[in-house]
Amino acid sequence: MKNKIACFAKCSLLSLALWGVISVSYAQSSGNRKKAVKYMTQANGAFDMGEFKQALSLSEKAASADPSYSDAFALQAAIFEHFRDSAQALKAHRACIQADPLYQPSYYYAASYLFQLGRLDESQAYMDSMRAVAQKPEFQASEHAGSRGMQARMQRLQESLDMAMVDFMETKELNIENLGPKVNSKGHEYWPGLSIDGRTLVFTRLVDMQEDFYVSYAQDGDWSSAKAAPGDMNTPENEGTTAMSSDGRTLIYTVCNQGGYGSCDLFMSHLIPSSNGADRWSAKQNLGPLVNSKYWDAQPSLSGDGRILVFASARPGGLGGKDLWMSTWVNGRWTEPKNLGSPINTTGDEEAPFLHYDGMTLYYSSDGHPGYGQKDLFVSRRSADMTWSEPKNLGRGLNTPKDDIGIYIDAKAQRGFFASDREGGQGGMDLYRFQVPESLKPQAVTYVQARIFDSKTRLPLAARMGLVELKQNLNLLTDSTQQILVPLVPGGNYALNAYADGYLFQSRNFQPSEQSLDSPYTVDLYLDPIVANQRLVLENIFFDTDKSNLKSESEAELQRVFDWLEQNPKLRIEISGHTDSEGSDAYNLDLSKRRAGTVARYLVEKGLNAQRIQFEGYGETQPMASNETEEGRAKNRRIEMKIITL
Asked: What whole-number distance in Å separates Cα of residue 467 and Cα of residue 246?
């Protein structure tokens, strides 16, 4: 007799809407089947009406009347699933197997429950028994055989078991901590995002079916009480899943059913500074039809330099239900998104991406790769040829049988944050932090904190700043009036420029190493008013050793000099070359003059009037520092610009 309830349960604790598979009991009846069927008919009716306790009682009567009636145990498993009683659901599946030894799915779901409980050997035993059942002739001849969906679930569970057998990460090593009642509530908190300095936490809170952004600030090793984000970002509708720019002043986030191009779209909001400290978020702006589609587009992640946007989308052209897509910022606009493809995406759902500040390490959630629960957290790394590595499960502790989503790793690659509905929280989905183990770390980065002052008055100056990655001559930041918080990656070569009308510009060079990541670069720049004989060291002019040809990394600095001279057309300058004391006086004098001449010719060839520029070499005669140390010698090897006439 056919029944509405199968002998198997969705082992994740989801809604009863997932129950709807028809099954047939093939076991030989050993009791009063007619009486049992009567009870089961009543039990199914109660189940359909949501009378679960009555349905449980009636199914127990059916099983008592006929212990071989496997459908009765199937219904009990569904009811215990609803009550989130995994122990009783497991017991019901075992009873189903005893009643009908050929019913393969019950072996699978028993194995799934045991896997979730960490009883791996027992789980593997059920998987082995399930395969043995599948080889029996009577099973091959039954209607139980041939389920492709079950075969796929079996394969994924076996892969998860294989992974778990060799995954020995101890939870205590992660030091997982709930962020506590100042951040978490009895409702749901998820999608954490932090500024690169780790001081501003923005997340989504669900209150009475309403999603809004909340903000908390780092305070003496703790977090301040979370408050709704100020300004116009929150509305009576739902907003969530934010990506924060490195400086904490731009958010890209998801807005649903508010006049976008699809059911959910990506929007942007900027932090508007206030002189009284009451900064506010601006009204939202849609990212436009090139990024957003008529389908579901959500869950953005913004790279540290603000040039890569990764998000989840249900648009066509992917590998599964929801895939990860990527758009890049080119010439002032976001490009058409591209699917990240395999091995990142699967036939399942990939969501909640976080692209670390290093631009090469991607964390995300997936139910399509082998895992420990409903959705697990994974990491993949992008290689030099721009391909992605096979995703790695983040392991037990971070991943549980519950939902674990929305991960964030700080700039130093030391602390991580994520959301989970695991046991022991404040209620619902909570935010947690953890220590990032070596095997899961991205590349640590640092950043620059810069302030600008008038060199004469020593007062703060309303100047502008720019940051350039010199190896690629890539502008990471242009005309910023705010503190620079753009990540600097070890091995990179960066130029920081500060400029204001009526002043000489200033430049600094940063070449981070693994040993320089413990704290950010903190720089105070003092701009000099434009006066005659004022000198400026051009810190980002580079030559090969003992040569006068310019390295390509010099181009950004030379462009800055040219632009500044164009903005001050009456100035005449001298370009001077200087060396350290290594080598003979004559050699150093010649080298310094050749280098100064190379810079001067570059500017003239670029379009500068030759009457406005002269050059000279001074060799080792005007040292800035002692030649007794390498650091001092490096300072002495320099190109300067001097104002001759105004």
From this structure: 13
488-498 pLDDT, tens digit per residue, is 888 889 999 99
Contacts of 411 (CB under 8 A, 6+ apart): 196, 197, 198, 304, 357, 444, 445, 446, 447, 487
Size of the chain, expressed as the number of residues it contains: 646
- Count Cβ atoms below 10 Å from residue 614 Cβ, excluding itself: 15
d(CA 47, CA 55): 5
Give the mean pLDDT of 54-79: 91
Residue among 353, 506, 510 at smallest CA distance from 446: 510
Lowest mean pLDDT among 338-342, 396-400, 415-419: 396-400
In the chain the domains, ranked by start, together with CATH numbers, are 2-166 (1.25.40.10), 171-440 (2.120.10.30), 445-529 (2.60.40.1120), 533-646 (3.30.1330.60)
* pLDDT, average across residues 501-528: 88
8-state DSSP, 121: H
User: Which of 436, 433, 454 shows the shortest CA–CA distance to 444?
Assistant: 436
Max mean pLDDT range (55-59, 110-114, 132-136, 248-252): 55-59
Q: Is the dihedral of CA 340, 346, 350, 354 positive or negative?
A: negative
Q: Residue 187: count other Cβ atoms within 10 Å of its Cβ.
A: 16
Strands 446-454 and 521-527: parallel
Which residues pair with residue 607 across a beta bridge?
A: none
Q: Would you call 563 helix, strand, or coil by DSSP?
A: helix
Under the banding of pLDDT at 50, 70 and 90, the label for residue 15 is very low
Which residues are CB-contacts of 79 (< 8 A; sequence separation ≥ 6)? 47, 52, 55, 56, 59
d(CA 367, CA 518): 36
Q: Cβ atoms within 10 A of the Cβ of 170, count?
A: 10
CA angle, residues 386, 363, 12, in degrees to nearest 5: 135
The residues that bridge with 446 in the sheet, in sequence order, are 488
Q: Which of 83, 126, 76 is nearest to 106 (CA)?
A: 126
Distance, in Å, from the CA atom of 569 to the CA atom of 610, rounded to the nearest integer, reads: 12
| The pLDDT of residue 20 is above 60 | no
Tokens of 17: 């809407």
- The set of residues, in sequence order, having a beta carbon less than 8 Å from that of 458 and lying 6+ positions away, is 526
